[in-house]
Amino acid sequence: MLEPARHVPVYGHCEVLVVGGGPAGTAAAVAAAREGVDVVLVERYGCLGGLSTGGLVCWIDRMTDWDGRLVVAGIGQELIERCGPDAVLGPPRELWGSRDPDAVAYWGARTSAHRGVVNWAPTVDPEVLKCVSNDLVREAGVHVLFHCWAVSAVCEGERVRGVIFESKEGRFALLAQVVVDCTGDGDVFAFAGAEFESDVDHSTAHARLNTSFRLGNVDMRRFLEFRVRWPEEYRRIMSQAAQQDIWLTLQPHATPYDSVALFMTPKFSGYSALKIADLTEVEFRSRDVMRQGLAWFRANVPGFERAWVLDTAAQIGSRHGRRLVGVEKVTVERWRQDGSYPDSIGLCPGITPEFPTLAIPYGCLVPTRVDGLLAAGRNLSADTGAHLQLREIPECWVMGQAAGVAAALAVRRNVPPRAVPVAELQATLRRQGAIVDRPESAPAASSATLAQSAG
């Protein structure tokens, strides 16, 4: 059918338009505004933080390398610090990198030690993180619009000029000098005709979906003591659960509060985050498993005898949708061999101790063809293997902050984002508190633009 032509009112103009208020979008908007440009941030839900808040993916994953050095800082670490110690569960700084067996055992049970090393991988209170995110954008002077859904891109040739949204007020357009796509699924760059990939590796958690939930009125100290002191009994109980078709992967995570358990599983495979029927089915299945799991845990697991459902995520846990085809593509092979890029805009800890710390390239945020547009977050340019780690929340903060600064510099210089001088971008990020250089490397002076670096 044909939709009748209609006039779309222009809601406003801005210098930088950020679409999506998750970790990447929040960081992008704050970073750009701190550089003095006019920023509008548009989010489809009623809060900032995306999956880290509305999705209850409030375990943040590793922000330190395998030697305990902080490699993700900037706006992401600022958000965590502003949440305050009562709302954050994680090891003290002096234990980062520790291989002490007792410290590893204690923090491993609290998802902050991996492969025999204590990491800074905090778990936060999602409601506090929502409020702190609000504070940050307001202090930076960002204009925020909630409850608006991007439905189309405004383009002139191969340049993006703005985005069309649907809302309770109807359809409207926002025009901008630079648009930053932080939708997670690459909705804007898909609307704009940029090339993208959506292949998945079904042997991993790469494309799995779920709706997270939390249980209240639990005794997590008692549960963790049971799991650590009687591991064989714990395995026996979980084996029984598997035999009765209770999801074996339904594992409780510790939170900042001893009375609350977080479940970010089960992870359902065979579904697409780009198909509405699949999204709907996962929402139903997740809550079915939640009710089944609650009954099982109450009857069989110490510490859960009087548990009840505290909440379920308002936002489905999507790990993969579309990936940009960018000027640079991060691949597992290059990461394994070296992991360095001259246009580094931030770091990502090695997937395992055998992998070096990755320098995330600016080119993975820049489309090959379309101008006036950047993409940050899990819709970056990467192969499926590298995407497994780069889709995590710390890396989304890193990419978002870099995209925000790059957008501001593009506005200031009146150039497309691909022409932003890499050295100026890196210097501005360092000034904003981001970590751009790998621990074993030192800053190198450069006057190259992205095109020159990539060439």
Key words describing this protein structure:
4-stranded antiparallel sheet, Alpha-Beta Plaits, FAD/NAD(P)-binding domain, 2 domains, alpha+beta, disordered C terminus, 455 residues, 7-stranded mixed sheet
Concise synopsis of the structure shown:
The protein is of the alpha+beta class. The protein has 13 helices and 21 strands.
Description of the molecule:
The chain is α+β, with helices and mostly antiparallel strands and 455 residues long. It folds into two domains: 10-87 and 125-202 and 322-432, 3-Layer(bba) Sandwich (FAD/NAD(P)-binding domain), CATH 3.50.50.60; 209-317, Alpha-Beta Plaits. The protein has 13 helices and 21 strands. The chain has helices at 23-34, 74-83, 101-108, 126-140, 187-191, 220-229, 231-243, 276-300, 332-337, 384-390, 393-413, 422-431, 450-454; strands at 10-19, 39-42, 88-89, 113-114, 117-118, 123-124, 143-145, 149-156, 159-166, 172-181, 196-197, 209-210, 213-216, 253-254, 260-263, 308-312, 317-318, 323-324, 344-348, 358-361, 373-375. Strands 1, 2, 7, 8, 9, 10 and 21 form a seven-stranded mixed beta sheet that branches. Strands 14-15-13-16 form a four-stranded antiparallel beta sheet, covered by helices on one side. A two-stranded antiparallel ribbon has the order 3-6. The N and C termini lie far apart (46 Å).
